[in-house]
């Protein structure tokens, strides 16, 4: 069935579009954009007063399947995505077994066809068993459908393996996503290394743990070429390194999570593991420079690093709880309210960060845009809808959100994937 | 006045509250010197010593404190690393709480765990050491000892020497002594005293000779040999050379300076017999005062009044 989205404020940076228009989706693709559209047989979405965006893409998600289905699976993870206004997710390779061969990649893709609510794009590991020693068979994994490679959870430990991966990109042009962390400098740290955590007696993770790997990677890339995307920046010095690399025309991109944009290390004073993640929440100065990095275009994408854990796993002493928080269901509303409506970034920039740029970095040519012929993936936000973030309403199996109880104005109300409405939040 | 339900740390206590605990503790000192070392103040109350980390002296000190106040006391020893196989900290506490204790005295390897306990328990909580965060009763017994020897806590220079980074004793002492007119100087190998500590209102002097200059109190900390060697400083040999409190170094301190140590001492590393067993050392006074301070704390958080009269 065809779908027409009527009278929405359509925002599409790929066409420099910000206008009240209709969109017709036929056979899962954008067929027409214009005023007063009609079609022989269609379903209508009344988007009067709503914002209509090209579907949002979370380029950093942990769906946990295969292997950790008790935390999350492809079905619940993508239901969470749909409920949060996300039309596509790229899922990291630290499953069990690890996605370091085309069998696992194919499994994820096949499973997603059966149960997923939104598009699922697997990321393969860079190194076998993520040990950082041997390159995976990038060609086979890419042919099976992986859109990038990352040892996320770990850095690419060997500088030489990273070099080989970058060289191999000349043949298999898929992004390398780096979890920039020097594991020795992080040691058994659990929070930012700072005056605050020295006072609290929490073991610190220095910013240099992140910047040392970013600097290493940039220098290797400078030598051999290729492109790297840096996951979850946390430090102002990282922003500076990325900025310099871009000034030098090196092909690097970077993402930041909603929690690093909206929270700082002060929350750790509660000793609540809901504020424990890697990289850790850093100082207010760091947070502000990440926001500045978004505004200036140094940081290319917002990604959730959705990391589901059960409550039993997470309800522990701060030092013992696992790292990570969820984000799929809250990222769009939170960023829209706290950064877009408050005037920090424009709606255009918002659409670039959550749609256009992730699509480009991951090589998703039919996504990130509402041009005619592109996939009919659309996120619609009601700027007036008020929500109090309530873990009992999460579709995710996990509840480990640091934003529980936050009041948000502006929330996704329709999530449309390939012309199908996979989430309708107008009535709840 | 001290009207709190818990003692989780020194940070956040006012000078008045600290004075009040110390005054109460001073009045408790006498109880332990009687032939019948018991007062009925906490009769019918149940104290649970919840120790998830090995400890002898703190556990025994709390045990005696509780018993001298006529409370019932049970000891629970767990391993904080056993949670992977066994029961979580939370479940352990909830099970014990189902038996209706009044006070948990908790020692745990993780910073914040005493506070964490209060988020799901209804009992009073006394922090007996949470990771590298706080050890409030140690700082209070140190303060009581200093006060007994120096008459007051104001107008003193205190030098704290050793592994500040991993020391909850150092942190609690810094929080406490900063409430008074004191000059606090930290000394030890630089990797064990990051410059960020100066944000806590203390001075850092890596040269121990300079750090003890004119000090009224020299507080030595235990070097945890198994943990530090090879990582935070090159060798114990080098540690001794630069950070052992020798007689010669101590001579730079005030002539009436006292030497403190929270124990257990590594004889031959941070201290040697010539100082540990000298008349400068108040180390065993600290141990005695530990009981008085813990009696005072247990008494006060149970709603004991200002005047402790037996």
How would you sum up this structure in a few lines?
The complex is a heterodimer of chains A (428) and B (310). Chain A has 428 residues and is an alpha/beta fold.
- Which residues of chain B sit in consecutive blocks of at least 5 with pLDDT less than 50? none
Tell me, what is the CATH class of the largest domain in chain B?
Alpha Beta
The 3D shape of chain A can be described as globular
DSSP summary: helix tally of chain A: 13
- N-C termini distance of chain A: 25 Å
Full CATH superfamily name of the largest domain in chain B: Aspartate/ornithine carbamoyltransferase
Q: Find the biggest chain interface.
A: A-B, 16 and 27 residues
> Which regions of chain A contain 5 or more consecutive residues with pLDDT less than 50?
none
Radius of gyration of chain A: 20 Å
Q: Kindly state the percentage of residues in helix of chain A.
A: 25-40%
What is the tally of beta strands of chain B?
9
Description of the structure:
The complex is a heterodimer of chains A (428) and B (310). Chain A has helices spanning 74-83, 102-115, 138-144, 159-168, 183-186, 195-200, 207-224, 236-247, 258-262, 284-296, 311-314, 331-341, 347-362; strands at 2-12, 17-26, 29-34, 42-46, 51-54, 56-61, 86-91, 119-124, 148-150, 175-178, 191-192, 204-205, 228-230, 252-256, 301-302, 378-388, 407-417, 420-424. Chain A is an alpha/beta fold and 428 residues long. The radius of gyration of chain A is 20 Å and the shape is globular. Chain B is an alpha/beta fold and 310 residues long. Chain B has helices at 15-29, 57-68, 89-97, 113-118, 136-150, 168-177, 208-211, 225-228, 236-243, 247-250, 273-276, 283-301; strands at residues 46-51, 72-77, 103-108, 124-130, 156-161, 182-187, 203-204, 217-220, 258-260. In chain B, the strands form 2 sheets. In chain B, strands 7-6-5-8-9 form a 5-stranded parallel sheet, covered by helices on one side. In chain B, strands 2-1-3-4 form a 4-stranded parallel sheet. Chain B is globular.
């Amino acid at each position: 069935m065809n779908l027409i989205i009527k009278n929405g404020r359509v925002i599409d940076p790929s066409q420099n579009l910000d206008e009240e228009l209709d969109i017709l989706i036929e056979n899962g693709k954008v067929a027409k954009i214009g005023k007063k559209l009609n079609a022989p047989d269609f379903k209508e979405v009344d988007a009067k007063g709503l914002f209509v965006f090209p579907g949002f893409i979370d380029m950093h998600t942990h769906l946990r399947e295969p292997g950790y289905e008790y935390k999350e699976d492809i079905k619940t993870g993508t239901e969470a995505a749909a409920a949060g206004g996300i039309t596509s997710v790229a899922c990291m390779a630290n499953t069990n077994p690890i996605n370091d061969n085309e069998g696992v990649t194919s499994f994820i893709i096949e499973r997603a066809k059966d149960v997923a609510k939104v598009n699922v794009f697997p990321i393969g590991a860079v190194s076998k068993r993520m040990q950082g020693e041997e390159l995976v068979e990038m060609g086979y994994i890419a042919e099976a459908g992986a859109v990038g490679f990352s040892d996320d959870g770990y850095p690419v430990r060997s500088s030489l393996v990273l070099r080989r991966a970058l060289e191999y990109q000349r043949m298999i042009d898929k992004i390398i996503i780096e979890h920039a962390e020097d594991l020795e400098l992080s040691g058994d740290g659990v929070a930012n290394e700072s005056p605050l955590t020295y006072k609290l007696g929490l073991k610190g993770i220095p910013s240099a743990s992140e910047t040392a790997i970013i600097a290493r990677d940039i220098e290797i890339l400078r030598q051999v070429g290729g492109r790297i995307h840096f996951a979850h920046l946390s430090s102002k010095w990282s922003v500076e390194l990325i900025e310099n690399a871009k000034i030098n025309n090196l092909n690097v991109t970077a993402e930041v999570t909603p929690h690093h944009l909206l929270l700082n290390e002060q929350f750790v004073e509660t000793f609540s593991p809901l504020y424990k993640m890697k990289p850790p929440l850093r100082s207010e100065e760091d947070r502000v420079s990440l926001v500045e990095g978004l505004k200036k275009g140094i940081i290319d994408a917002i990604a959730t690093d959705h990391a589901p854990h059960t409550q039993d796993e997470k309800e522990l002493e701060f030092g013992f709880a696992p790292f990570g928080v969820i984000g799929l269901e809250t990222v769009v509303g939170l960023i829209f309210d706290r950064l877009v409506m408050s005037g920090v970034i424009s709606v255009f920039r918002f659409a670039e960060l959550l749609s256009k740029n992730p699509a480009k970095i991951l090589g998703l040519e039919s996504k990130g845009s509402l041009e005619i012929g592109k996939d009919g993936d659309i996120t619609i936000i009601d700027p007036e809808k008020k929500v109090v973030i309530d873990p009992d309403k999460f579709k995710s199996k996990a509840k480990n959100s640091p934003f529980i109880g936050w009041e948000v104005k502006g929330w996704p109300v329709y999530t449309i994937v390939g012309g199908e409405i996979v989430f309708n939040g107008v009535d709840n | 006045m001290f009207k709190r339900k818990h003692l989780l740390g020194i940070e956040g206590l006012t000078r008045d509250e600290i004075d009040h605990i110390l005054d109460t503790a001073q009045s408790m000192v006498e109880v332990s010197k009687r032939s019948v070392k018991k007062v009925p103040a906490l009769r019918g109350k149940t104290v649970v010593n919840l120790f998830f980390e090995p400890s002898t002296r703190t556990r025994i000190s709390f045990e005696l404190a509780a018993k001298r106040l006529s409370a019932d006391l049970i000891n629970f020893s767990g391993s904080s690393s056993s949670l992977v196989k066994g029961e979580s900290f939370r479940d352990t506490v909830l099970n014990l709480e189902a038996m209706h204790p009044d006070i948990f005295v908790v020692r745990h390897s993780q910073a914040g765990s005493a506070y964490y306990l209060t988020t799901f328990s209804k009992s009073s909580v006394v922090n007996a050491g949470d990771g590298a965060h706080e050890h409030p009763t140690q700082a209070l017994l140190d303060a009581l000892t200093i006060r007994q020897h120096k008459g007051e806590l104001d107008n003193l220079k205190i030098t704290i020497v050793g592994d500040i980074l991993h020391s909850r004793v150092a942190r609690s002492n810094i929080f406490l002594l900063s409430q008074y007119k004191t000059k606090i100087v930290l000394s030890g190998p630089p990797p064990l005293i990051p410059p960020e500590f100066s944000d806590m209102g203390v001075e850092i002097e890596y040269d121990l000779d300079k750090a003890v200059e004119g000090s009224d109190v020299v507080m030595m900390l235990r070097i945890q040999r198994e943990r530090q060697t090879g990582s935070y400083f090159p060798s114990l040999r080098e540690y001794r050379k630069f950070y052992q409190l020798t007689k010669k170094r101590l001579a730079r301190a005030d002539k009436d300076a006292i030497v403190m140590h929270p124990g257990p001492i590594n004889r031959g590393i941070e201290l040697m017999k010539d100082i540990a067993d000298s008349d400068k050392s108040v180390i065993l006074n600290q141990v005695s005062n530990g009981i008085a301070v813990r009696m005072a704390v247990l008494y006060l958080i149970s709603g004991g009044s200002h005047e402790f009269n037996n």
